[in-house]
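Working notes for the structural subgroup meeting. M.R. asked for a predicted model of this chain before we commit to crystallization trials. I am recording the input and output together here so anyone reviewing the notebook later can reproduce the run.

Input as submitted:
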Amino acid sequence: MLYYLLMIHLWVLEKKKILFASVLKPADEVRMYKKLGASLSDSKGLDLLFFGSKKMASNHDYGIFLDGFSFNRNPFKRIQRIWNFAITCFTLKPDLLVICTWELLVPAIFYRAFWRKKIIYDLQENYFKNILAENSFKRVVLIFPAMIVRWIERISVHWISGILVAEECYFREITFTGKRGILLENKAIPFEIPKIKKRDQVVYSGTISIQTGLGELEHFLKTMKGYTLVVIGHCPKRSDQLFLHELSESYPNLKLNISNEPIPYDLIREEIRRSKFSFAFYQNFVSIKDRIPTCFFESLAYSCYILASGNPTYQEFFKKHGNGKAFNSSMEAAEFVIDQNIEFDRDRFSQEDVCWITEKDIFKSQIQDLLMEIDA
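Returned structure, recorded in token form:
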């Protein structure tokens, strides 16, 4: 009842309403809440509305959260979320939609057809490539759903006013981005850097899986001495959780903070802040090998040296920013940690290179231009 009263109250407000919407897992909604939303938090005359998981919301968040569902891969639950989103749009009549998941493009386009409002598509993933890279099914089975997703994106782009592109490689991989694509890399959230007297730990953060380096962890622990390894993040597979707990029994310097539910983003940042090294042995799967992990930007922002897997994309990143190295094996990385006296070089980059600062200004400018078009 309170939800519907809130919707009625918002419907009569005269402020411009911007609705951010996603049905992604909460760990991926940090960009929607804390980056895109935060970019507009100081803008006057705007109501910021969020449709998505409330797991990432905290007492310090801004805006109004219209839903509080838990991430679920059940197709019926996801269809229900899409239906609820459509009802929310037609009830509140937002002036601008920022769509952060392909599944919400269809109801967004229907809404635009009725009310002539604006849509921005936040392209966080190459969904077509990601679906085909799934290991659970054969490629021939996955090609059909992958093509449906790409078809929806290609058709929807004709009614979209702008596309926010999270990775530079998407301009090469996804032709429909065209001239409307604006690069907004997934950089770190700006913050002050308190001084830490001693950094004696390595951090492995984010989504914990084979894709992000879980298979290399035991080799790394066998060789590494003198440091605590903190593993913190969302570990969705039960088998991976059991593997880590068994590993912690053999290695007392392994500390775990994992869950099948997302870990609060602020806790992850705190562990990165306390760490001297960041373990980032992402596998060279076709779906992720050309992408720059968000933890790279976060690690550099917190003066945390990156230990990465051998990947030409990562090597180019370190040539530009320094403070990281790509290794052929995790054992080689562990030996590097033991043998090298690393001094972090903050002069290799500016804060704008790794933090969400320039991106904030670009996004605000894009929003202001679209709102002016609506008023015209």
